Amino acid sequence: MQTYVALLYSVILGEGRRVVMADLKAMAEDLGLKNTRTLVATGNLVFEAPATDIANLEQRLETAFEKTFGRHVDIIVRGAEDWLKLAAGNPFPADSAKTGDQVAVRVMRKPAPVEAVKGLQAYAGEDEKVTSVGGDIWVVFSRERPSSRLLAAMNHKRMGTGTSRNWNTVRRLAEMLG
Q1: Residue-wise pLDDT tens digits, 31-84
Q2: Distance CA 162, CA 136 (A)
Q3: Strand, helix or coil for residue 62
Q4: pLDDT range class, residue 13, cuts 50, 70, 90
Q5: Quick one: pLDDT at residue 91?
Q6: What gap in Å lies between CA 143 and CA 56, rounded to an integer?
């Protein structure tokens, strides 16, 4: 058995979109996934399953989610080793230690296009940072402005399928795996 992390895209945004984590956990168990656990109510699932192709696992989860909850949601899956590597590769450790809720990573299904990531610099405020590590996009958001242009610029159309988690969530998921 291998341990995996599954991240659901935008399960709590908008009316009628909230998903109860107990229901998500039950859906995963119905797929035969073992030792299922969730972290906070934003669509973070840790589970064990036989070693398999990640794309196949994502497809199975997305199909089950649509059948169970009546709508499609992109689900990004990483093996435990890859998740721990992602967490260890945080390019902004000092910022993360001070303001973990302002540092985020957009975890990508396929690596973000290099030129698209470079293009994000045009949307970054002077107190914001953005870089790519292993195809995932890391950002330090501004504490001074309530909204960032970076968030809108990191959309599916420009970057590809992915979902964002702040450093606090990344770290806690890594602790669940440890």
Answers
A1: 999 999 998 777 899 999 999 999 999 999 999 999 998 889 999 999 999 999
A2: 9
A3: helix
A4: very low
A5: 98
A6: 39
Measured over the CA atoms of residue 15, residue 17, residue 23 and residue 24, the dihedral's sign is negative
CA-to-CA dists, residue 167 to 1, 49, 92, angstroms: 27, 26, 10
For residue 174, give the amino acid letter: A
Is the pTM higher than 0.85? The answer reads yes
DSSP 68: H
First to last CA, the chain: 15
The per-residue DSSP string of 81-145 comes to HHHHHHHHT-S-HHHHHH-TTTEEEEEESSPPPHHHHHHGGGG--TT-EEEEETTEEEEE--SSS
The tokens for 108 are: 């990508």
